[in-house]
């Protein structure tokens, strides 16, 4: 005779959201969860006390149940890590909304597919990043943000302020930059003049 698994629910809402875990807890209780861990924390954070408490109490044959997959984690990498911890404890996993159940062969296959897609996504991001960096290097970009001012404009600001024709505040307004930016331009210009002398 098969034993009935001990279902443990996990409900989470993000901090600052004007909502509660009530609807999730109700769905988890209706699904047969005998205990529900409730948390108010971002799904992108790994330091969630209730999540760690739940994982620490898992025994072989238990099943972790969530209302929706993103309640466990918003990061696919963290989700797969949490799933590994659940599996290492000998427990299963169910998501009510996505109908994923790792206690069945089809559910285990589904999680393996999710993991494969995550790995593929990471590889694609690495390839796109490498291609973008190579393209930027080919165009002569070294890195960082593009300058807001052309060299000619920077020289005009520096010469105008240094000669006293215009104030730093006037040049900042004229070119749509901050006064500290003007100060840095002027300081660099004066340093160049000093080095040239």
From TrEMBL:
Segments crossing the lipid bilayer: none
GO biological process: DNA integration
Domain Resolvase/invertase-type recombinase catalytic stretches: 6-140
UniProt KW Cell inner membrane keyword: no
InterPro entries reported in the protein's UniProt record: InsJ-like_HTH, Recombinase_CS, Resolv_N, Resolvase-like_N_sf, SSR_resolvase, Trp_repressor/repl_initiator
UniProt cross-references to Gene3D superfamilies, sorted A to Z: Resolvase, N-terminal catalytic domain (3.40.50.1390)
UniProt entry keywords in alphabetical sequence: DNA integration, DNA invertase, DNA recombination, DNA-binding
GO MF assignments: DNA strand exchange activity; sequence-specific DNA binding
SUPFAM superfamilies membership: Resolvase-like (SSF53041), TrpR-like (SSF48295)
One Pfam short name: Resolvase
Enzyme active site: 14 (o-(5'-phospho-dna)-serine intermediate)
Domain of life assignment: Bacteria
Family under the similarity heading: Belongs to the site-specific recombinase resolvase family.
Descriptive protein name: DNA invertase Pin-like site-specific DNA recombinase
């Amino acid at each position: 005779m098969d034993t009935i698994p001990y279902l443990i629910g996990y409900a989470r809402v993000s901090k600052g959201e004007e909502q509660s875990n009530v609807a999730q807890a109700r769905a988890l209780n209706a699904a047969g969860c005998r205990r529900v861990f409730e948390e108010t924390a971002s799904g992108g954070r790994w330091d969630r006390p209730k999540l760690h408490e739940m994982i620490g109490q898992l025994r072989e044959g238990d099943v972790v149940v969530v209302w929706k997959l993103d309640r466990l984690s918003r990061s696919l990498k963290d989700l797969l890590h949490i799933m590994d911890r659940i599996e290492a404890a000998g427990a299963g996993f169910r998501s009510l909304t996505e109908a994923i159940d790792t206690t069945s062969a089809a559910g285990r296959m589904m999680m393996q597919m999710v993991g494969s897609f995550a790995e593929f996504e990471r590889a694609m991001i690495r390839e796109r990043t490498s291609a973008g960096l190579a393209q930027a290097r080919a165009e002569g970009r070294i890195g960082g943000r593009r300058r807001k001012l052309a060299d000619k404009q920077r020289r005009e600001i520096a010469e105008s302020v240094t000669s006293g024709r215009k104030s730093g505040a006037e040049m900042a307004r004229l070119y749509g930059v901050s006064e500290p930016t003007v100060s840095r331009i002027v300081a660099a210009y004066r340093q160049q003049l000093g080095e040239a002398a």
